[in-house]
């Protein structure tokens, strides 16, 4: 009896010590290696994830299927609540289906309802610390917790739970500087299997809706203004002028500049004031902030994934003499 008890204890100890290690799990020496492995896994693995996405007070459940075949990505994102809405990725194009006229947009990945960290080039990212916070169990998997911390107070921070075996993202918390939760991506069920290659054929043969090509922006040099300050690491990546004649009675023009630091982005809009002076107006829903203020005869509006304090600072650093009549 004592011998059998001893054997049982030794076997139990063996499994306790070895099961959580997930045999053949790759170990990395730095947080950056974990982050790079995550972006690679989401691009090249065949998998399905059922997850919950919380943005502010809005909570929805979704299913994401992904396949990688002949160096091409195929994906389907399906919203599981309320009206059926579906997004399909094929040939660097995302098509949208639902209770609306289907359409397609040029894009190398699905941007909607997925964390932006999945598509970030962390080797080029500036202005952040990457911190290894140890291991934690999530979605019945052992995960490595990596924190992405800004070096200033002008952007948000991320906490990521990366599966130590598959390297897929299992959870992400987007937090403000006071660690209030702005957005949470949380996987409920995660499956990695070559069987998910079956989505390639139906997606390849699907007749997709017409592609909507955005109008080419005017060169940035044609604009007569720009912010004299943006958070470190943010760069202007697009600029131009748009006419709002479809929505307004006149041919009102809006000038815009899009900025990104590789992880977050925001757009500055400038439009002619219509007589109503905005001293300061702001609104935030989850990670999205909207801030507006009137400077001289122009209304300045900022929309993007930055704290309101950053948007206010950017607007205040746009000098009146930088905004000249066309």
Automatic annotation (TrEMBL):
Residues 31-195 form the MucB/RseB N-terminal domain. It is found in: Periplasm. Belongs to the RseB family. GO terms for molecular function: antisigma factor binding. It comes from Ursidibacter maritimus. The lineage of its organism: Bacteria, Pseudomonadati, Pseudomonadota, Gammaproteobacteria, Pasteurellales. One of its GO terms (biological process) is regulation of polysaccharide biosynthetic process. This is MucB/RseB C-terminal domain-containing protein. Residues 220-319 form the MucB/RseB C-terminal domain. Keywords: Periplasm, Signal. One of its GO terms (cellular component) is outer membrane-bounded periplasmic space. It comes from the Bacteria. Pfam families: MucB_RseB, MucB_RseB_C. Transmembrane segments: none annotated.
